[in-house]
Design a protein that fits this description.
The complex is a heterodimer of chains A (466) and B (487). With 466 residues, chain A is of the alpha+beta class. Chain A has 17 helices and 13 strands. In chain A, the strands form three sheets. Chain A has a six-stranded mixed β-sheet with strand order 3-4-8-5-7-6, with helices on both faces. In chain A, strand 6 and strand 7 form a beta hairpin. Chain A is globular, with a radius of gyration of 23 Å. The two termini of chain A are 33 Å apart. Chain B is built from 18 helices and twelve strands. In chain B, 39% of the residues lie in helices and 16% in strands. In chain B, the strands form two sheets. Chain B has a six-stranded mixed β-sheet with strand order 1-2-6-3-5-4, with helices on both faces. Chain B is an alpha+beta fold and 487 residues long. Classes of the chains: A alpha+beta (466), B alpha+beta (487). Chains A and B meet through helix 1, helix 3, strand 6, strand 7 and helix 5 of A and helix 1, helix 3, strand 5, helix 5 and helix 11 of B.
Chain lengths: 466, 487
C-alpha cells in the first residue's frame, strides 16, 4: 500500500512498523551478539580531523570490493529565508555542474568512466553527497571531490538550464503528487517562525528568481571544510584515506563559522488546519505534531511509540483504521529528527469517497488512548525487536553504514553513539513512552491537513469525453 | 535530490536515467584489470530438490545475525484466468492474512513481534515471497513460511476486505507519483491481448467481482511444491536448515495444473498512441518503446551495456539531451524488462505540459541517432567500467544474494551467469554490439507510445505520433479493450 510513503526517519534507521497484542515476543537473546558485534565494529572505525577542520571517519569493510563515500554539509532549507527558498537544494544540483579542472558535465562523466555513480539529497538540515565506486577509482574520486569543493564554477548558463530541472523535480514530487502537495501545506502551516516552514524544494517563484550572488555566497559560507563531515566505508584502509585527504582536501581553506539559526518556534497554543481542494480520486488526511530535536533524550521513546502506532500490519493505527473500521487504505508515520525541534507525522490514505472527519475522530481516540494508557509490554518488546533488526539490516551495506555513521556524527555529535543505540533503546520504559505520547499528541500542538477531492468542471468533463 | 534512485534491480538494468559522454574519456587501462579482478562471485549454495519438486538453495553468510529468504512460486499473473486479472495479486495478499493456527492479526503479530518482515508480491510469472528475520528466529520463520504456502485460511471476511482495499488503492495511486504507474500503462497498451499486458496488481474493473471461490481455484491450480524455488541466506548451518525445511515443505502437494507458459512475443510494427487524460496535470509523462529481450537471451550482456549508454545512467544519451543540456526534465531513462519471453524495452521521461512535443521529439531523435551511430570506443569503455563498478554492491546483502539465486533457478541458469558477468562485460565486441543496437533497440518507426497528461493541451502532439486511443485517468483499467484507434 504505497500512497503517502511513510518511513520513520528514526534516530537509527528508516524502518517500518508494528504492534503486537498477542503473546509477548521473546526478550532479545541477541543482546549479547549485538553488544559483541558492535564493540568489534566500533573498534574498526578510525577518525581524523584535518587542519582546515574537515572531520573524516573511515570504516574499513573488506567484504565487497567497493566503497561508499558520503560527504555531509551542515546546510539545508533551515538556513534559508523568503526570496531564496529552495536554494540549498538548487545548490546541491550546481555541485555537479562544473568546477576548475573538471568542467560542466565532467564530474559525472569521469566518475562513471571509472565505474562510479553518485547522488545527493538535501533536507531541512543537511546536504549529503554520495559516491559509490569500485576501490580502483579511489584517487580519482578524491580528485573530483577536491575540485568541486575547492573551485566550484557557477556558470550562469547552467544555472538557467538547471532551474528547469529543479522545477520538473518540484512538479513530480509536489505539484502532481497529492501527498507531497498536502505535506508542503501542512509543514508551512505548522511553523509560524522557524525556517522549517520552508519547503526544501523551494517555492516556485523563488526557483525562478534566485541570483548568481546568492549561489556564490552560499558556496563561500556553507561549503567550507569546517562545515563538513566526510564518511568513507568499504574496501579501503584508514591510512589510504587519510593520505589522500591530506593531499587533496587539506589545501582547501577553512571559512568563518556560518551564522547560527537563532529563531526558535514559539509554543503552539491551539490547533491549526489547512485544506487543499483539487481534482483527485481520493481524500488524504495528515497530522503533524511539534516534537523534540534529534538529540533530545526522549527521542528513542518517541521513535518506539511511532513504530507501535504505525509500523506494519500489527500496528495500532493500521489495525484500527484499515482492518477494523475499514475507513483507510494505509497509515504511515514519520518522525522528523533535525537540529531543531521538528514534527512527528501521521499520514492516512483514504479510499475514494472516504470520510476524513470520521478518520480524524478515530485517530483522536487512538492518540488520546495511548497518551493516557501508554502501550503494552508486548508492544514495547516488539518495537525494540524491530529497532534491533533494522540496526543490523542497515549495517549490512556500505551505504547503510555511511548513512548511519553520518547521522550520529552530524545530528548527535558522536559517531560512536551509533553503536550504543541498541542499548539506549533497550533501556526505554513503558512510562517514558506514555509520557512522550502525552507531551506530543496534544490537540493544541498539532496541524491537521485535509485534501478534499473536487469534481472536474463541466469543461474538463466534456474534454475528457471527446 | 540530484537524481531519482531506482531500487536495486538485480541483474536487470532498469536503472535511472543518463546522458551521453561527448568527447573522449581516456580509458583508464588499469581499471579494467582491477574491475575484473575485483568482480564478485555468487557465494555457492547448497542445493536440495525435495520429492515434490521444490528446490532449496542455501547459503551460509555469518557477518550479521540475520537470515533472509527469497521464494518464487511459478505461475503469477500468467495463471489468472481470462477476465480475472488481478486474481494472483489478490491471492498473494491473502496468503499473508491468516494461515495455519493464526488468523490475520496473529500472523502479523508473529512477524512484527520479532522484528521480522514477510511479504508476498505478485509477479508476471511467479508469486514472490520475501522475508528477513533475526537468525535466532529461524524456527518461527520456517513455520510462518510453511503455513503461508500450504495452509492459507482465505477467510471470507479477509477476502472481501482485501479486495475492496486493493480496488480503492489502485484508484488512489493515480493521485501520487505517476512515474511509478507509467510502466503499468505501457505494458497494458503495448502487449494488448498477450498475457504480458496484465497489470500484476490487476485493475479496478477486473478485481472488483473476484470471489473467494476464485482464490481457492487459483491456489489449487497454481500453488504447489513443484512450483517452489526457495533461497535462504544468512547466519545458520545449511545442513540443519535443509533438514528443517524438508520437514516443513516436503509434504506440500503439487499444483493441480501444469505451470502456465506465455506465448512468444515479438516487436510490433508501426506506431500506436495511448493518451490518458489527467485534466489537473501540469506535466506530461510519456513512455515510448517496443518488445525487447528475455532474461535468457544470448545478447543480454551486450544490450545491457548498450542500455547503460542509452538511458541507464546519469550521463546517458537520453538524460544528457533532455536534462543536462536542455533542462526539460528532472530525468529521462530507458528500461529493459526481461521475463521468460521478450519483455518491454522502453524509454521514458516527463516534462511540463507546454514542452511535451519538444521533449518527445528529442527523445525520438536520441533513439534514432543511437540506432544509426551506436557508440564510439571511449563511450563503450566508459559504459563497461560503469557496469563493472556498479555490479558488486548488487550482491552485498543476504536478501540480494537470495534474490539472485532464486532468479537464476527460476530462469534455469547457473552461477556462471553471475560469475562470468564481469568477463563478458569487459569483452563486449564493438561490431557485435552495433548489430545488437540496430536489431534490439526500438525503431523510431515502430513504437508504442503512452502519454499521461492534460489531453486538451497535448492531444495535437499525440496525433503527430500516430493513431490515438484516448482514455481518462479515472477509468478503472490501464488500457481500453483493444479496438480500432481513432484517426
Amino acid at each position: 500500500m504505497r500512497g503517502q510513503k511513510c518511513f520513520i526517519a528514526s534516530l537509527m534507521l528508516a524502518g517500518t512498523v508494528a504492534c503486537a497484542q498477542g503473546r509477548a515476543a521473546k526478550a532479545p537473546a541477541a543482546a549479547d551478539t549485538t553488544a559483541k558485534a558492535t564493540a568489534t565494529a566500533s573498534a574498526q572505525v578510525r577518525t581524523r580531523t584535518l587542519s582546515n577542520g574537515l572531520k573524516i571517519i573511515v570504516w574499513p569493510v573488506p567484504a565487497n570490493p567497493s566503497v561508499a563515500l558520503y560527504n555531509w554539509f551542515r546546510v539545508g532549507s533551515r538556513n534559508e529565508r523568503p526570496g531564496i527558498t529552495g536554494l540549498s537544494h538548487f545548490f546541491e544540483h550546481m555541485m555537479f555542474n562544473g568546477a576548475k579542472k573538471y568542467g560542466p558535465g565532467e564530474f559525472d562523466r569521469v566518475m562513471e568512466a571509472h565505474g562510479g555513480s553518485n547522488n545527493a539529497y538535501t533536507s531541512e538540515d543537511v546536504t549529503v553527497y554520495q559516491d559509490w565506486f569500485p576501490r580502483s577509482a579511489l584517487e580519482t574520486i578524491f580528485d573530483l571531490e577536491a575540485d568541486r569543493l575547492g573551485h566550484l564554477a557557477i556558470d550562469p548558463k547552467v544555472v538557467e538550464s538547471e532551474r528547469g530541472v529543479v522545477y520538473s523535480e518540484r512538479r513530480s514530487s509536489v505539484d502532481n503528487n497529492n501527498a507531497g502537495l498536502l505535506m508542503e501545506q501542512v509543514q508551512s502551516t505548522a511553523f509560524v517562525a522557524h525556517p522549517y516552514q520552508i519547503p526544501t524544494i523551494g517555492w516556485p517563484s523563488d526557483i525562478e528568481s534566485w541570483k548568481q550572488e546568492d549561489l556564490e555566497r552560499y558556496f563561500r559560507t556553507y561549503y567550507a571544510p569546517n562545515n563538513a563531515t566526510l564518511i568513507v566505508v568499504g574496501a579501503v584502509t584508514p591510512e589510504q584515506i587519510f593520505t589522500l585527504a591530506e593531499k587533496y582536501l587539506a589545501p582547501i581553506p577553512a571559512q568563518p563559522e556560518p551564522e547560527p539559526v537563532r529563531t526558535q518556534e514559539p509554543p503552539q497554543l491551539g490547533e491549526r488546519r489547512v485544506t487543499v481542494r483539487k481534482l483527485a480520486q481520493a481524500p488524504l488526511l495528515q497530522m503533524a505534531f511539534h516534537s523534540p530535536r534529534a538529540r533530545d533524550a526522549q527521542m528513542p521513546a518517541l521513535d518506539l511509540l511511532v513504530r507501535v502506532l504505525t509500523e506494519g500490519d500489527s500496528s495500532r493505527l493500521h489495525r484500527r483504521l484499515v482492518e477494523e473500521e475499514r475507513v483507510a487504505l494505509a497509515v504511515g508515520g514519520y518522525l522528523g529528527a533535525g537540529f531543531d525541534p521538528s514534527l512527528t507525522w501521521v499520514l492516512v490514505d483514504l479510499p475514494p469517497g472516504g470520510d476524513p472527519t470520521r478518520v480524524e475522530a478515530l485517530l483522536d481516540a487512538e492518540l488520546a488512548r495511548v497518551s493516557t494508557e501508554g502501550i503494552t509490554d508486548a508492544e514495547l518488546r516488539k518495537a525494540k525487536n524491530i529497532v534491533v533488526a533494522d540496526f543490523w539490516r542497515r549495517l549490512e551495506t556500505n551505504s547503510g553504514r555511511a548513512q548511519a555513521l553520518g547521522t550520529f556524527e552530524v545530528f548527535h555529535g558522536d559517531w560512536q553513539a551509533l553503536f550504543g543505540a541498541p542499548e539506549r533503546y533497550e533501556a526505554v520504559t513503558r512510562e517514558q513512552v506514555r509520557q512522550v505520547a502525552a507531551q506530543v499528541f496534544g490537540r493544541n500542538n498539532r496541524t491537521v491537513g485535509v485534501l478534499v477531492p473536487e469534481q472536474a468542471s463541466g469543461d474538463a468533463k466534456q474534454e475528457a469525453a471527446r | 535530490m540530484k537524481g531519482l534512485k531506482a531500487g536495486v534491480v538485480l541483474a536487470a538494468w532498469s536503472l535511472t536515467a543518463a546522458a551521453a559522454p561527448a568527447a573522449e574519456s581516456p580509458r583508464p587501462a588499469v581499471v579494467t584489470r582491477d574491475a575484473t579482478r575485483d568482480a564478485v562471485v555468487l557465494p555457492p549454495a547448497r542445493t536440495v530438490t525435495l520429492k515434490n519438486g521444490a528446490r532449496l538453495l542455501l547459503v551460509e553468510k555469518r557477518d550479521v545475525p540475520l537470515v533472509a529468504f527469497s521464494a518464487r512460486v511459478r505461475g503469477g499473473s500468467l495463471g489468472d484466468p481470462a477476465g480475472k486479472e488481478g486474481l494472483a495479486a489478490l491471492t498473494a495478499e491473502l496468503l499473508q492474512r491468516g494461515a495455519g493456527a493464526r488468523d490475520a492479526n496473529q500472523f502479523a503479530d508473529a512477524v512484527d513481534g520479532v522484528g521480522g518482515s514477510l511479504e508476498v508480491s505478485p509477479g508476471l510469472e511467479a508469486l514472490v515471497v520475501r522475508g528477513q528475520f533475526m537468525a535466532r528466529d529461524i524456527p518461527l520463520m520456517v513455520e510462518l513460511l510453511a503455513d503461508l504456502l500450504q495452509r492459507p485460511r482465505f477467510e471470507q471476511a479477509e477476502v472481501d476486505k482485501t479486495r475492496e482495499r486493493m480496488v480503492s488503492t489502485l484508484a488512489a495511486e493515480k493521485d501520487g507519483d505517476l512515474r511509478q504507474l507509467m510502466p503499468v500503462y505501457f505494458q497494458a497498451f503495448h502487449f494488448g491481448a498477450h498475457p504480458y499486458a496484465r497489470p500484476v496488481g490487476g485493475n479496478e474493473a477486473s478485481l472488483a467481482p473476484l470471489q473467494r471461490e476464485d482464490v481457492l481455484a487459483y491456489a489449487k491450480a497454481q500453488l504447489g511444491g513443484d512450483r517452489l524455488i526457495l533461497s535462504v541466506v544468512g547466519d545458520f548451518d545449511a545442513k540443519q536448515l535443509a533438514t528443517r525445511l524438508e520437514a516443513a515443505l516436503g509434504g506440500w502437494a503439487r499444483a493441480s495444473s501444469p505451470a502456465p507458459v506465455a506465448p512468444p512475443t515479438a516487436p510490433t510494427k508501426g506506431r500506436r498512441v495511448l493518451l490518458v487524460d489527467k485534466p489537473d496535470a501540469t506535466q506530461t509523462y510519456f513512455t515510448l518503446g517496443n518488445t525487447g529481450i528475455s532474461r535468457t537471451d544470448a545478447e543480454r550482456v551486450e544490450l545491457g551495456v548498450a542500455n547503460t549508454v542509452l538511458g541507464g545512467r546519469f550521463t546517458s544519451l537520453l538524460n544528457t539531451a533532455l536534462r543536462i543540456k536542455s533542462g526539460l526534465t528532472y530525468g529521462a531513462s530507458s528500461r529493459l524488462s526481461t521475463p521468460l519471453r521478450a519483455g518491454a524495452y522502453s524509454v521514458a521521461s516527463y516534462t511540463k505540459t507546454e514542452s511535451t512535443g519538444q521533449a518527445m521529439d528529442l527523445t525520438v531523435e536520441v533513439l534514432t541517432r543511437f540506432r544509426e551511430q551506436g557508440l564510439d570506443a571511449p563511450t563503450l569503455a566508459s559504459a563497461q567500467e560503469y557496469v563493472l563498478g556498479q555490479f558488486p554492491p548488487t550482491l552485498e546483502t543476504g536478501a540480494q544474494i537470495a534474490a539472485q539465486w532464486s532468479e537464476l533457478a527460476f530462469f534455469g541458469l547457473d552461477a556462471s551467469d553471475v560469475d562470468d558477468y564481469a568477463r563478458r562485460v569487459s569483452q563486449v565486441d564493438p561490431a557485435r554490439l552495433k548489430a545488437v543496437i540496430q536489431h534490439r533497440v526500438p525503431a523510431p518507426e515502430d513504437l508504442t507510445v503512452v502519454m499521461v497528461g492534460k489531453a486538451a493541451d497535448i492531444r495535437e502532439v499525440a496525433r503527430t505520433y500516430g493513431p490515438v486511443t484516448e482514455m481518462r485517468i479515472a477509468d478503472p483499467f490501464f488500457a481500453p479493450p483493444p479496438k480500432a484507434p481513432k484517426p
